[in-house]
């Protein structure tokens, strides 16, 4: 009977596959009848109540999954605050594992048997749970399972594969890879070196030059590119000199805040501005006159404040900088640099068309291979991790509109600015501004307040602004236990207050 059953297995397997196929086809044919997910905000009009609490309660009752999705999102946010703990536990587990392997070698009197050492599975899992860039992707799996359980497999697949827009995560991957190449970095470094030379090329001059010019580049080459260039140059010219931990966090917070507001001089580079520019008719002139000078003022005042606070330590880094500049690098031919600028410009131009900017990136990889003697290794690990982080974030963020939209819609100008700043700390600022376009009857003053608040709060957490994970990924190796969310918040708090003053008072 056993062998007879085995002979029937292929038939049973084929039948099972045919059943799954028929089920999938039937689901696809019935997709037209699938209820919209997430539920459109307009559908809540019949249940909304006068008070905010009553409105949120009614929306939660209308679709209980709203509460489930938000609870999962809150758990993901809390997980980011515990990432350092997971990394610490990973080190403890791996040290115990190494000690156990050492005792085993001593017992068998062998040091090298030619086989790879056994890897600590538990340690690797804890390392993965401690990777900030992986956290929202991990919880996206939990969210997908919850959607499947509440709404069905077809709805889960449709939401993750069709509803969520992954253009920005894909764009960040490509722009990070392009901006971190040797020719682009050399070009940016030379530009900032000219400004730093006014201060004698000392570390404090480099610090001030990078934190002023790199954020403003975000209005031309996009914020992710500006963040990548700024973080890489800070790593080379500042963090490599081993400043104090307090100054490290202050600089990281300052970089994140400055990048967040530095892209507001134009209408095409910063994601939170892109979300509203077409809907509200904001053009280059409008952005430069209404936001540009506020942003420049905020950057200058924030840099000056931290320069004053940390002046002794910043100026004391002078002696250490001399040894770091002795070795001259081979120059990159102008035509190679020019081609990199062309690829970078094409990617920015086609930022909304993944098929085109990814195709352009493939051509770039071929060009980089053909000019390998002028290139550094094209780094993809960090860009891919950041893209994974953002993809997970937009999956979660798309299900938070049910509570963010009524919160924004009930606030006046100053409360709206403050509310957008606070909400941005817990969600990507581009999502905050996008949801603002869904609120009817916004006056010009309220539109300014919500966008200004969203970009002001863009440095408070790693999830507040899309380019932040890129900067953290590049610089986290200079922090002993990784970047602490509390340390980042404290480092960004003072610049955030200064920027708020610049937007709302100046």
**Helix fraction by DSSP (H/I, runs of at least 4):** over 70%
| General shape | globular
Strand content: under 5%
Structural class: mainly alpha
Radius of gyration: 25 Å
Contiguous low-pLDDT stretches (5 residues minimum) are: 1-31, 321-326
Q: Termini, distance in Å?
A: 87 Å
Number of domains: 2
Q: Major sheet, described briefly?
A: none
- What would the average pLDDT be, to the nearest integer? 85
Counted by DSSP, the helix tally is: 25
Please report the total strand number as a whole number: 0
Instruction: Give the SSE string.
Output: HHHHHHHHHHHHHHHHHHHHHHHHH
What features would you describe in this structure?
The structure is a single chain. The protein has 506 residues and is mainly α. The protein has 25 helices and no strands. Helix 6 (132-151) packs across helix 7 and helix 14 crosses helix 25. The chain is globular. The N and C termini lie far apart (87 Å).
